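Following the same procedure, the fold was encoded as tokens, giving this record:
***
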Amino acid sequence: MNIAMFSDCYFPRINGVSVSILSFAEELTKLNHNVIIVCPDYKSKKNLKSQFKFSYEEIQKTKKGSIKLYRLASHRIVFSQEDRLVKITVWHNLKKYLDNFKPDIIHVNTEYMVGRFGSHYAKHRLIPMVYTFHTYWEDYIENYADFAPKNVSRAFGREISLYFLKRADKIIAPTKRFEQVVKSYGINCQITVIPTGISEDIQKYEKNHANLFFNRIHKIFPIIKKKNILLYVGRVAKEKNLDFLLEMLGKVRKTVNDAVLIVVGDGPELKSLKEKAAKLPYSWNICFTGYSDRDQLAYFYNLADVFVFPSLTETQGLVTIEAMSNGLPVVAIGEMGTLDVMQGNNGGFMVNNDIDEFSQKVIDLLQNPELRKQKSQEAKEWSKNWSIENTTQKLLSVYNSIIK
């Protein structure tokens, strides 16, 4: 099968959508399907080695093989420096490229220009289109358009999604909650719930490398040695609610005075969060590592004692599953994707958006080694429900049914 995946974000831009696309593309390629990922270019024009003018083919090497990308010329977005807006002038060359590829299925994953290109191409060439509803725009836009009335920003976010929901032949929702949102919009198209699967690669842990890794981290952040470590992994952005963790650490340290927080990740709010942390009386117990390669995450998960996740707008919470697969118990706020991932206190504790309740569950895990061991074992078992092999088979079933 020839599969064309369209996304307005992809590596080196890291978020849940990028990880989802890569995970499925790797597994589909391993199953001998031909996959092309259409995505923005993140370089400047002068560095491009173009196959077509300002667009080019790229081969991404992965641990499971090679994936073909078609990068489209783009420019920065004023309100989001991490993202790119693809130029409309690439449309003609993109059509030529796709005509040579001859896709059997179009899979749209985002709602900017690349997503629209995918939708238009499917319509022009009468090719079935699948749309994954990754982002709940009604909530997401509120974090970046707080100058607008709430009802206006939410209505605008809803319209962004509806454009694609109305045009899709089949819809994929990453969680049950997202399925309910689609139904509430009055969409009658068939919806299939398929979470992004987790590859076993995220659990790869070599003892020799672990010793080197731990020595290096302890050298950079000596404060964390022999301490109770709370870990956050993910983008450092407004919607992640990371101010919550700064306050939480203060409350936890009143009972567990050797607790430290490690924040692994980069994003537009990193500088601001560092400045806020620096003003706290316990600032030296908060460590920011910046961006980390995915093959290093297993070592962070094994270094920590508790994974803390305060996001209120998460689609799936993939890092929560990754942490669990490495045996790291989780304390997370039970909103959006976290509800579907944890489904209660599986692998840790799912709590309300309440700083005292969250802090107390962290304290319980730190002070009770038996409880932490029980939740660690539970986390490993629970994470098996999200294997990439199983979820890819579900995705293929959707593709096959729509083609038939």
